[in-house]
Design goal:
Elements (H helix, E strand, L loop, with lengths): L6 H7 L11 E6 L3 E7 L19 H19 L7 E13 L8 E12 L2 E10 L2 E15 L1
Antiparallel strand pairs: 1-2, 2-4, 3-6, 4-5, 5-6
């Protein structure tokens, strides 16, 4: 199954809201396998006021947060029927690397793939790409809790 989601559908799955929702669209979703998400980076982003005035660069931790949010969409849509609607919690990250700065005007494509699931814990790998060049990568862990 492949599906695209707009921002309204993403907000139906995630509790995040402005200014902390970090993905704009889901381009591809294959439950239990992968998700491809998009983030349009604009100069209006509130973090650019202080990071860095005169030379705006998207904070790396926010790229990882965006990966986590995309991974949460994948996890939410991969849960068994009886667990649908559960909150997804970010648990950890490993092997994080930042390769190139991301600046206003860039469009980041995040690709998150499932590595494994054990009980309520998901392990995923993620990459962030701008203009076909990898700008960041990480392994992420998340778990699901109570239903909303």
């Amino acid at each position: 199954m492949e599906k695209t989601f707009d921002i309204q559908e993403i907000m139906n799955l995630l509790p995040h809201r402005y200014p902390f929702i970090m993905i704009d669209r889901i381009l591809e979703l294959v439950p239990g396998e992968k998700v491809v998400a998009l983030k349009n980076v604009t100069i209006n982003e509130p973090f650019f006021q202080g990071h860095f005035p005169g030379s705006p660069i998207m904070p790396g931790v926010l790229m990882i947060e965006a990966m986590g949010q995309a991974g949460a969409v994948l996890a939410a849509k991969s849960l068994p029927e009886e667990e649908q609607g559960s909150l997804i919690y970010f648990m950890g990250m490993n092997k994080v690397k930042f390769r190139k700065p991301v600046v206003p005007g860039d469009q980041i494509i995040f690709e998150i793939k499932f590595l494994k699931q054990r009980a309520k814990v998901f392990k995923m790998s993620g990459i962030a790409v701008v203009d076909e060049k990898r700008v960041a990568e990480a392994e992420l862990m998340a778990s699901f809790g109570e239903k909303q």
